[in-house]
Fold ATP synthase epsilon chain.
Amino acid sequence: MEDILTVNVMTPDGLVYDHHAKIVVAKTTDGEIGILPKHAPIIVPLAIDEVRVKRTDADTHVDWIAVNGGIMEVRDNIVSIIADSAERERDIDVSRAERAKLRAEKMIQEAKEKENIDALKRANVALHRAINRINVSKHT
Ligand code: ATP
């Protein structure tokens, strides 16, 4: 087996990322996981968080991807991430994410006042998505 990973990130909008890599670090719902070549096959649920991809040993450059949950499968040196949405750091519209954050904070406030638990959960997830995008955009 070769000493290199192939990393692809798929969303309903298409392929967001497709590159060879030396290491991938992602946040599962149980915590952070680092994937190196020859990793054992796994399928894990991902948190709404950033995925870091280091493409070569020599290079210090890291690609950052904001991933909106989803799943990651590792098999035969192929890391496949499938998520509802995902954006590379350079593709994130920061002002849109800032607006989404403000909207979510307002929705949280309203849901709390109305004691609407479902709305509160949805708004918290939306807030988390927006904060994740803002954080990832800072890596450009
Ligand atoms: P918004 O309220 O701004 O639409 P959202 O969290 O509801 O944010 P999603 O439903 O997760 O958005 O995503 C819808 C589509 O818009 C996806 O293709 C996603 O990649 C894209 N998207 C959402 N927010 C941003 C952003 N800040 N920058 C770039 N693309 C974004």
Q: What stands out?
A: The mean pLDDT is 96. The beta strands are 5-11, 14-21, 23-28, 31-35, 42-45, 48-54, 62-68, 71-75, 78-82, 86-88. DSSP finds two helices and ten strands in the chain.
